[in-house]
User: What shape does this take?
Amino acid sequence: MRIRLKRSDYLRILEHARSGLPDEVCGLIAGRIEEDMHYVEKVYLLDNPDACPEHFSIDPRAQLEAIRDMRSLGLVPLGNFHSHPSTPARPSDEDIKLAYDPSANYCILSLAGDEPALKCFRIERATRTTRETDVEIVEYAPLPRAFQN
Ligand SMILES: [Zn+2]
Assistant: This one.
C-alpha cells in the first residue's frame, strides 16, 4: 500500500503545522483508493482543540463537516494527520492508544529535525503494531485510471 500526495497539499500541511507551533495541529485526508494506491485529493486542516504541544484531538463537529464534504465530492476518508513539534515522526504511546481505526492512515509530520519529515502508519491498537506506509509526494497527482476518460 502506498499514499500519493500532491506537493501543494504537503506544503499546506507543513504551513499549518508551522503556524500552529508550539502546539500540535491536525487534519484529515480524503481521496480515492485504487488497488494498493491511496490518492490524496483533499486535505482538511483542522484546529487542535487541546491546544497542546503533545496532544491533539479532532473536533467531532469539524470531522463530521469534513466527512459530509468528502461525500459530496465522491471522496473517501483516507485517514488523518497531526504534527509533532519536537518529537520524531513516529506514533507516540498515546497515538497508538487512540488509534481506533486499523484501516486508516495515521500520518505524522515532524518538525523536530533540520528538515520536516512526513510519515504515515497503519496502527493496530490491540497488538500495538505500527506499520509504515510509503508516501510519495508528487508535483501533480494524476487521477487513478478508473476516473480518467
Ligand atoms: Zn502524535
User: Anything to note?
Assistant: Strands lie at 2-6, 26-34, 37-46, 76-84, 105-110, 117-124, 129-138.
